[in-house]
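Consider this pair:
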Amino acid sequence: MERETQISALVSRTTRDLLERHVRATGVKKGHLVEQALRHHLLALQELPADVVVHPKLLVTKMSGEAILKQIQRGKPTPALRDLLA
């Protein structure tokens, strides 16, 4: 059996609430859930090319947000987008 070590990390209240809700609903121990999720995530980051990894949070500055808005306002939906939304 692999020797265990303790880690500490600050997470948002939302993440903590999601963790608590899942633990209560499934009975899975917090330590096991965190270990499996972290291991899964880190192994995926090792295996996947960096350009295909989509991070869960994107930073949109005022300038980049205005550029996105301009593109949305003048853009027309592509056939692929129409098919997707149909």
In short: Residues 13-50+59-85 form one domain.
